[in-house]
Protein 1
Amino acid sequence: MPTMDTKTALLNSAEHAARTLGFDGFSYADLAEDVGIRKASIHHHFPSKAKLSVALMQRYHQNFEANCAAISGNHGTGGTQLSQLIKLYRAASGNGKQLCLCVSFSASRDSLPPGVIEQISMFREMVIAWLTDFFEKGSMDGSISNVADPALEAVATLSLLEGAQLAARSEENPRFFDEAVKLLGMRITA
Amino acid sequence: MPTMDTKTALLNSAEHAARTLGFDGFSYADLAEDVGIRKASIHHHFPSKAKLSVALMQRYHQNFEANCAAISGNHGTGGTQLSQLIKLYRAASGNGKQLCLCVSFSASRDSLPPGVIEQISMFREMVIAWLTDFFEKGSMDGSISNVADPALEAVATLSLLEGAQLAARSEENPRFFDEAVKLLGMRITA
DNA sequence: TACGACCTACCTACTGATAGGTAGGTTTAA
DNA sequence: TTAAACCTACCTATCAGTAGGTAGGTCGTA
């Protein structure tokens, strides 16, 4: 098994910590212990915690967008695409052990640099764009019922998904996510 | 104007700080400065930050429940009651400057004592019960359209409201809350 | 009434731990 | 050799909290 480069290991560790404990809830000491280098060495890769948050959000955005593009490319109807995106959010909640980075950062947004607030904003816009696309497709191909306005559906769905993650995280139980999105799921007919 | 007792002033200050910055984002020093006593004196009223969080959640639950009961008592149709509750959540987001305590605490739940996690769970159950009541009324009196299952509607709506707060908080703009709940609003006919 | 005991609510001084970070040096791999 | 990546040693600042004390108020009893 190839050894991961330290910077990536740090990003993985930091993402996991941020999504589990929040931005204010983890420290460089946690990352150092996890990755196996000294706390002070982290500054070589990330000169400040703020800079680390920038890199985290950037990477998260890219990965998530790639996942959405994959869903769009691999699944035929708007309904299945929406269903896959719901699954993506469910998976991101890590069985109630984590939140997606966007949610986690939003709750402590005052601790973050302005650039990251911008990134969070763009992340939400990106997800809403994909959701709007899926709702439009689903409305036209009939795989999502009662689509009044795809753009408004998209915005509401994103809030629903984020709120569902919060509930699951609070209870450390994915069943709370499932219950929150059940009605939405019933509107989807593959 | 009567002088507020110190304990209440501390609770107010702590609630504001927790809902703005998160549990890990504020410290006793912030409260001390706000209330005008020394940091160490806070321990007289709240021996630990964990105990403070217990008191905060208890008070928040009581206040919120009283607000829901008032809505139920003062407004006639299920639709207007639901509409008022949505307004309550919007108001709690403080024009994008705050989150409701439940959301704020959920995001850093690992920093909280187990009892508070229980309290958060009960808070959500309480809100869901009220929402279920409002949806049932709205379904029967015709003031909320397309109510498939009041209990599921309630759960989804709570997640929607919490997610909407996150979006508004992240952007520091209540317009994002409004947009997220727009479709729900359209289902209400006074 | 007066005084002692007790309480409440604050203080100063301090603790040990931890936070993010700096600076200079060493090690490792290409 | 050189640069990246690590190290040690340390910094300032801050954290939640402890310990002992003061001051003013209240209560009970003689």
Note: The mean pLDDT of chain A is 94.
Protein 2
Amino acid sequence: MKIDPNSSKDLSAQIAQAIKEAIIAGQLPVDERLPSEAELSEQFDVSRPTVREALKRLAAQSLIRTQRGATGGAFVNRLSFEDAYAQQITTSTLLLSMNAVSFETACEARYALERACAQLSSQRREADHLATMRAEIHRQSQPGLSDEAFCASDVAFHRALVDGAGNPVLSYQLAGAVEAMQPSMNMITFSARSRSEIIALHTRIADAIEAHAPDKADAALAELQTYTVKLANDVIAARATKP
Amino acid sequence: MKIDPNSSKDLSAQIAQAIKEAIIAGQLPVDERLPSEAELSEQFDVSRPTVREALKRLAAQSLIRTQRGATGGAFVNRLSFEDAYAQQITTSTLLLSMNAVSFETACEARYALERACAQLSSQRREADHLATMRAEIHRQSQPGLSDEAFCASDVAFHRALVDGAGNPVLSYQLAGAVEAMQPSMNMITFSARSRSEIIALHTRIADAIEAHAPDKADAALAELQTYTVKLANDVIAARATKP
DNA sequence: GACTTTTAATTGTCATACAATTAAAAATAA
DNA sequence: TTATTTTTAATTGTATGACAATTAAAAGTC
């Protein structure tokens, strides 16, 4: 691992890049301890603060974890699905909010992915996924529920649907798409009328999944997508006329 | 924005978190300049190196960019789709390699997403996506092509298919799934026999997209998935018997 | 042998200094 | 005046050295 002191990039960025590549290439296996900060500064011929900046860059990406104390140090971190979810969610959230992605586009992506999952989910879903979906539907029909809680329950419902596919890679991919839309969804006020409509569709989806009927699940999801976009457009239209 | 000096977490992690939340909440708009490092260290009552470690954490996530000089500083970065791709790819790659995700699981996720895209792509595809797909098919049938180049062309083909859906959010999501599988795909040796089989399927896909026939595209993709998994299993079986 | 204390290694934080970069301001020349 | 050059000031990048906090192992003690 070498760095170029005359490069235009920061030394800490170069060092982080070098270590990152070593991790990706598998040269540094999971739980391997990196040399101490003092040793790294000697190896790369830079100061300790520079090394530390590099390590913090890696820590920010969950590539390493650090521990203090005698046997401490920086260790290659096993990237967990949980860590990956979190990163995926912030990245997707910022992507949507900073790039003027329309609600419709985000919604289309989300439901395209979700319909792909529903196929698998109707084959494989297990009792607990179905139970979660039913429980969330029940929660959604409680009268006093706030809009935020309704949205959160909505996310949980769709999460169970996706997890039912039994493919962690799909779950991870979709977590971003679903949760990144939360801010937009929270802007929608869900009237009693719209809630009952959504609950009806959720019930149809759960029924279809339970009956191992992918086509019915697909149709219900398509309707839900159309309905969600319509609700959002109504909100946008209402704001435009009376700001 | 406040931090807790008695928290178990590093000061730099807390500061990074606080700024990150402000960015996500939209309190710090794109291209806004953060206070200088000296000012931040006063505000948070920490030293400059600590502030710098926090800023490097944010830079590693493409949340800010820094500039030297008189009018320099740290600026809130507009997270581009390109930056997001890159993050998505490394995260997905590490997720697969570090968590013993089977080739089959990864492949299933990839094709589930890709088939979802193909639906949209067959409705919307424009001339240039189709042209790219045809060009890559042509490249793949060149005799002297190395396995790496064949794989790269394969990625380009699927990329065009996905981009044909005209939904940047989908393209971003899938970039990870497709490119993260590159390392696994590169382990497969593509015989002349398997290449021609793949090329035939690619041609069927391109034809279906051109003819606006989502069902045919879906069927061809399903076959391609089955065939890819079979190829991979053959490689694994061959390694097991003769290591 | 079990418990306590000491020690050494390591990361976390701080203070300070200087180098490198850059845009604006000031000075100079045409 | 205008164009060019020089100076200046602000800012990030890097280095050095020091000390605090943490932790496991080693040494000591009962």
Note: Chain B touches chain A through 57 residues (CB under 8 Å).
